[in-house]
Write a structure and sequence with these properties.
The protein has four helices and five strands; from the N terminus they run ααββαβββα. The chain has 159 residues and is of the alpha+beta class. A five-stranded mixed beta sheet has the order 1-2-5-4-3, with helices on both faces. The protein is globular, with a radius of gyration of 19 Å.
Amino acid sequence: MDFTSFHKLRTAVQENAHPADDRAAAKLRHSLETAVAASGLFSEVEFGHTDDAGQMVIGVCRCADGVLPWEAGMGVERLWLTATADLRWECHTVGCTDSLMELEGAVTIDESGHYITVHVVAEPAVVSRVSLVAQDGRRDEAAETAGIQAEPARLSVPG
């Protein structure tokens, strides 16, 4: 699901239900944090909770050496689906670039529609970031040698 569709769906849930209590959010946070930390995809994992209805559970991670953000995104999506398998309803979206993995999710936990929202981001491993900077430097040097000015790398997203 794309981010726009996810946000529309999450907003509809938020307008028609109430946030779950802190105990339910803490249970989902603990489940996700434990799974993400044990996955081997990340060298650093930190989860918490906020009062923001759009991201009640938050996570900030750093990819392990050799794990690219898109690989981490695929893994986190599987972990999310496992952690939410027994809940009444879920939706989520995952986005990845060279420098960021992002998962946003929402679940309802009971028949009355109490919801929990989640937002997890991950940066690439330090080694990967150094590699990207080195690649940019080599591209700039090659362009300078050729007598042209290098443009920054750009990601294009099909619309």
